[in-house]
Amino acid sequence: MFCATSDAVIDEFILxxxxxxxxxxxxxxxxxxxLEACPGIGLLVSGVILLTISxxxxxEQLATLSQIMTLAFMGALLSDHIGFYLGRWLGPRFHHHxxxxxxxxxxxKSEAFILKYGAAAIILGRLMTAVRSLVPMLVGISGTSRVTxxxxxxxxxxxxxxxxxxxxxxxxxxxxx
Length: 177
Fold this sequence. Notes:
Blueprint: H1 2-20, H2 28-37, H3 47-59, H4 65-90, H5 98-102, H6 104-117, H7 120-127, H8 135-142, H9 146-174
């Protein structure tokens, strides 16, 4: 019951904020897309918030679906590339950092995922919330070339953005209207 009440309060807050800030509401999309995939921070920020806000923006006609998907794509791509270059900069010494030691289990899962799926891990990792914020950094640590990562990550972010658009349309059709 607390969860349902808490969700209703959050939903009401989001709706009120979006209504009061209609002209700037679109700016939330790339910020949330960035945060939910940002190394470290992404483990704390749920993609459900981005989906909820995107759906509200679309249903309230504050942004078009193509605007939402483009903004989300840009935020996701930027975050993934920051993670990748952070991984290249940190290299293998990252595993000795307190952040990595504290999250060793999640990192081991992510590394096993990358080893199992290779380059496809970049695309699959973008689609899996549990490892989304870690895969680009670990791919950077692995020494993957910049061009290879960039090409595959652009494709991954396009697929992810299209999926977000599909979910927004699907949720719009479920809402009473």
